[in-house]
Write a structure and sequence with these properties.
18% strand; 24 strands; OB fold (Dihydrolipoamide Acetyltransferase, E2P); 38% helix
């Protein structure tokens, strides 16, 4: 586990002790609470909880995914940035995505960040310079200047598309309307905020006028910037700090610190507490200096951001799916509060997971009123981990208890402790249901699983509705005007029911044949219905990765869906591969069940080679396995970062039956767009499947993979008949041997660098 996770989540087992079932259960819980928090904070400017807990939960999610990459969910919080932009403003697509930052909570996390930077770049013990600056608690804003004139302003939105707030941004005094000496194209990024003094004055005016006061300066700033009337924004005392940039026609400087200095020369407000630090110890020292001044700064901050100073190194480090590798936010600690747990309720998710939620007497935690807390699963309520270890000192949670809740970000809080001295007389231990509270199907907890699941499948309305909500969510089909509320209404509509995704694309035709037109119903009108039909039609052409993600297959997050799309290229290729792999997948599941006990013994006794022989014998013992099935299965699980758990889940979802029929009906309504490949003329490895094995000496494995994928190659984690090229460094073992057996081309690292036309970087 990276850093001191126990401080952020004192009542949860450490990531290292989680087994696969417990990890899957924890990821399911995290996905739910983080999604709700993202919408409350970014989409509604009304966070239900505070900054430190969100980050602690998101960090915990990332650590579990790193340990169990095959368990990554389709709705993984690590693949999400912000929330979908509001429909009240026009949309602007960011030419350079506005990404979020990964987080650090403890000193060791910061040291690990530095180590990871140097490891990725193969710098050894060489020092790296970083900038350290306060993390402003406001609303992210991007300002685009062309020929020195402000032409547009957009909020972060979902990271790819934001809201057009240009007219409102022009009213902020800290934002220059014209620049002298700027690049032809300059996209400045920063944070809109409100000072404590201005916030107090604004609320005083609101109360004098009989209006509802704002909860905190961040809400006030966000609400002010997103006013439909710019005159209202002009009347609000908004400020702006510049700290980054997006699209540029020419570089601002060679370093982060010099680029920020140039933004200040151009007329932007930059934070005077930004400092240049030589390594993690200086970064931590500056963090403590800023933390000591936090109460007297006059504006809200929730941590310190560290960035690699050398912009050339930033470019080499590049990005993960939603965060840069060259920056991290070191957050301030969480806050705690005590309140009454009034009731425990069960929610049913799209995969059938029964998730207990604590309904709390409303309490203010860190300036935000909260009334819900996640209770994870039945073991958590009983005061034990999934492996039987005590949590909270073994104290169970009962209705009526006085509980301590805490927040570490924009998420539903968690219960940290129970005050047994205040437990009501006669309070009974909570009995977790063994049947679904919605469809009353049996709720089964499989051996080794921490989660109890409804077995109703498609007949369970709760699962069906949650699957539909996922289908129209931001990372999937993202249909404008069709959100969670509308999905629930259509699902229960007797005239225009939407019971499965395909029904969405027949809505217009069914409405035309219906006597009761949608446009005449409460909440709808001619314009809104017309816009809905148009939004649905626009999504008939859908990128393959979004289609895969939208299906809501368990264990398939946005990253895994994108990996599948890149690997197979089009829907037909994916479908054919899954169908071909199905017999081998069934065989694999039987072999794994047969070898489960042997695997534990082999791991303990170091007899893995012998176990591999046994496994090969079991594969060979099935004469009914169709030709090519094993190769198709190996290709599927060989996709780098994919794994057998996700592959089995995919094959199960696509097997003949009601779920496959629903998928086929959906795809019949769509035109899935194949993945665009780099042209062969542009890249010598475009479309090829590459495997890296052994030690790479001139770049790290992570950098090599990122470079290969940027050139259109598919990077696999294992060698199969479908592998085109193996890059073998010193120490290459079984993969190199298998490549020779299969006659696959092998080259060394120098050959790889020559092939892609890249000069070796070498240790710096």
């Amino acid at each position: 586990m990276t850093g001191d996770q126990s401080k952020a989540t004192p009542d949860l087992p450490a990531v290292e002790v989680l087994d696969q079932a417990a990890a899957a259960a924890e990821l399911a819980r995290l996905a739910q609470v983080l999604a709700e928090a993202n919408q409350a904070y970014h989409g509604e400017d009304a966070p239900e909880i505070s900054d430190a807990e969100y980050d602690a939960l998101k960090r915990r999610n990332q650590e579990i995914e790193a340990r169990f990459p095959a368990l990554k969910r389709p709705d993984s919080p690590s693949e999400q940035v912000g929330a979908a932009p509001s429909g009240a403003f026009g949309k602007l697509r960011h030419r350079v995505p506005m990404l979020s930052l990964s987080n650090a909570f403890a000193d060791e996390d910061v040291r690990d960040f530095d180590s990871q930077v140097r490891s990725f770049l193969n710098l050894g013990s060489a020092p790296v310079a970083y900038t350290a600056e306060p993390k402003i608690d406001g609303l992210s804003l991007s300002l685009r200047y062309e020929n020195g004139r402000l032409v547009q302003a957009a909020t972060r939105g979902d990271g790819e598309t934001g809201e057009n707030v240009t007219a409102n941004a022009r009213t902020i005094a800290d934002i220059p309307q014209e620049l002298t000496g700027a690049p032809e194209v300059l996209e400045v990024r920063g944070e809109v905020y409100m000072s404590h003094a201005d916030f107090a004055a604004l609320n005083a005016r609101a109360e004098a006028a009989g209006d509802k006061p704002f909860a905190n300066p961040r809400n006030a700033a966000a609400g002010s910037l997103r006013q439909l009337d710019p005159a209202i924004t002009r009347s609000r005392p908004l400020r702006f700090f510049a700290y980054a940039w997006g699209e540029l026609s020419e570089p601002l400087a060679d370093t982060q610190s010099a680029a920020i200095a140039r933004l200040k020369v151009l007329g932007f407000q930059t934070n005077e507490l930004t400092a240049l630090c030589d390594g993690p110890e200086e970064m931590l020292a500056h963090y403590r200096r800023i933390e000591a001044q936090r109460a007297t700064l006059g504006y809200d901050i929730d941590g310190v951001v560290y960035k690699v100073d050398d912009l050339a190194l930033q470019r080499r480090l590049g990005f993960r799916s939603t965060t840069p590798r060259w920056a991290i936010a070191h957050k301030f600690p969480a806050e705690l509060a005590w309140t009454r747990l009034e009731k425990i309720e069960i929610q049913v998710g799209r995969t059938g997971a029964l998730s207990p939620v604590a309904r709390l007497a409303p309490v203010t935690v860190g300036g935000v009123v909260v009334s819900n807390a996640t209770l994870h699963n039945e073991d958590y309520i009983a005061g034990r981990s999934s492996s039987g270890e005590q949590i909270r000192g073994g104290k169970d949670i009962r209705e009526g208890d006085w509980v301590q809740v805490y927040r570490a970000g924009d998420v539903i809080p968690k219960v940290a402790d129970v005050d047994l001295s205040k437990r009501p007389e006669g309070a009974q231990p909570y009995v977790f249901p063994t049947e679904c509270p919605i469809c009353h199907s049996p709720a089964i907890r499989e051996p080794g699983d921490a989660i109890r699941r409804c077995t109703g499948g498609l007949i369970c309305p709760a699962q069906a509705i949650e699957k539909l909500k996922h289908f129209v969510s931001r990372g999937a089909f993202d249909i404008e005007g069709l959100g969670a509320r509308q999905i629930e209404a259509f699902y229960n509509d007797p005239d225009l029911p939407v019971k499965e995704p395909a029904d969405i694309f027949t809505l217009q035709a069914r409405d035309a044949a219906n006597l009761t037109k949608l446009a005449k119903r409460m909440g709808w009108g001619e314009t809104s219905v017309k816009n809905l039909w148009q939004a649905i039609e626009e999504k008939r052409k859908i990128p393959l990765s979004r289609l895969i993600f939208g299906l809501g297959v368990r264990h398939l997050g946005e990253v895994a869906s994108a990996d599948l799309a890149r690997h197979f290229g089009d829907w037909q290729g994916l479908l054919a591969a899954v169908d071909a792999a199905r017999p081998a997948a069934r065989r694999y599941a039987r072999i794994e069940a047969a070898l489960a006990e042997e695997r534990q013994k082999a791991a303990a006794e170091g007899r893995r080679a012998r176990l591999k022989e046994t496994e090969d014998q079991l594969w060979a013992a099935d004469p009914q396995l169709p030709p090519g099935a094993r190769a198709a299965w190996d290709d599927l699980i060989g996709i780098d970062g994919f794994g057998a758990v996700a592959a089995l889940s995919l094959v199960t979802a696509f097997q003949p039956g009601p779920e496959r029929d629903a998928i086929d009906r959906l795809v019949a309504e769509l035109d899935p767009q194949p993945v665009e490949r780099c042209a062969a003329a542009d890249s010598p490895v475009a479309g090829k499947t590459v495997v890296f094995t052994g030690s790479l000496e001139k770049m790290t494995r992570a950098e090599a993979k990122a470079r290969a994928e940027s050139l259109g190659a598919k990077v696999a984690g294992s060698v199969s008949a479908r592998t085109d090229l193996v890059v073998a460094g010193p120490g290459a073992g079984s993969k190199a041997k298998q490549a020779r057996t299969l006659g696959i081309e092998m080259i060394d690292e120098d050959g790889w660098l020559a092939l892609i036309g890249q000069a070796p970087a070498g240790p710096a």
